[in-house]
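Predict the 3D structure for this chain.
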Amino acid sequence: MEFHVYLPQMRMSPATLVERARVAEAAGFDGIAGMDHLAPPLAEDKPMFSATVTNAWLAAQTTRLTVGSLVLCDAFRHPMALSQETVSLDHFSGGRYELGIGWGSRDNEFVTYDVRPTQPRARVRRLRETLEILRALWTGDVVNYDGEFFQLHDARQAPTPLGHIPITIGGAGPRTMELVAAHADWWNVHIGILDRLDEMRAHAGKARISLQHYVAFVPTEADRERVEQTAARRFARRSTVVGTATELIDFFGALGERGVERVYTWFCDFADPATLAAFGETVIPALR
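Done. Predicted structure below.
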């Protein structure tokens, strides 16, 4: 099982983000991923950095970690611009960039910032076109495309990717699952559908399964109450796994038995360095 740190690039300075990334790398985490919003959800008055710029910054400050976003919103970028950004990050990171992409999870964001199309069904159709265009551009061939949202005439991506850029797609609707099966290396499952994972995995094609999960790491029993209070304050009523290293090994091990091969851990303490180090010393080796 792989473990990536999910670390939204908000409420933290660039130096703090680098600190967390370097500690995660030293602790044995496989990657780090942030969010992609025009303003932080439920915290619109808080500062937040650009997803792709943050990816580039963290890639430059690390040597092994995979960098990416969980997930980029398709409608925020023209596919040609997204292709250029993705391939640039691929080259500058030495092949450590993964493209996480979806059709958008916050309807109010589309209205507030006049991002179109606003309707979910149209956003899924737009994402389909983006994925088709990206796959065509990454070959280096001249691309002509006549779609509902995009028309490209003799378009070309240069340079091309160093190798294969993995694609992660989040979502679980029928049309999204069609895109997962056709284009994704990883299907990122929402924890709200875990009870239906076994019946839905056939719709994911050959995509491997990843999962984002809220985590409250308990160093010792004496810390449990404090950690539980922090998790309740930070994550409210969201499904959070609270536990010691042994409890987390059992929890994530059970997910592994169900086919989950990667976990994006969203720690309730903003990925405190001590938590990353302890998790890396105990949980990661047991499940790798």
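The chain has one domain: 2-208.
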